[in-house]
């Protein structure tokens, strides 16, 4: 029997908040705010229209839904049952085209459907699993040669601790306390190495910044806190 690469306490944490995924003023407000930035950046690199996409760790489907509306054929996967049900219900209510959701681990889907996707996205998820490198390998297995894989996560340094935990969870209360665990943050160099080991070629890196006074997010060259990686599978 294969042990799932998931932390039950992390799944429970997001499961308890599932009904609030699509409330843009809830704990998920930051995800709604950054989603247009993520979506545009992914679309610029990979040209989503007509592409087959798998969104790993899709949660309530915020990114999955927006990629489907850009013309991609999207499969969203997660192991948080309640969040997936919310995603499915939202897709029905909003009549989102070309989208489906499944409760399945990335590693299991990779064994089942290797090389079946043009684009793989794995956003804000690696810092919540016990073995992030295993997820990176699964992403590589799922994507076609020449296809795109996108990650976003949080750097591990003093500034990231200050901004992502002290600032976001305790001072500004943008996120519930305990959302993130500092020890699970991932340096860009570590993620880049896992990508290389999995035959993924790093194409671009972007940082994501936030101004609490204007409540505005933007992409930049500063990867010291939140950052995104774009990779392509070797051909």
Could you characterize the architecture of this molecule?
There is one protein chain. With 235 residues, the chain is of the alpha/beta class. The chain has one domain (8-233): Rossmann fold (3-Layer(aba) Sandwich). The protein has eight helices and eight strands. The protein has an eight-stranded mixed beta sheet with strand order 3-2-1-4-5-8-6-7. Strand 4, helix 6 (132-142) and strand 5 (143-154) form a beta-alpha-beta unit. Helix 6 (132-142) crosses helix 8 (188-197). This is Ubiquinone biosynthesis O-methyltransferase. S-adenosyl-L-methionine binds at residues 38, 57, 78, 123. It catalyses: a 3-(all-trans-polyprenyl)benzene-1,2-diol + S-adenosyl-L-methionine = a 2-methoxy-6-(all-trans-polyprenyl)phenol + S-adenosyl-L-homocysteine + H(+); a 3-demethylubiquinol + S-adenosyl-L-methionine = a ubiquinol + S-adenosyl-L-homocysteine + H(+). One of its GO terms (biological process) is methylation.
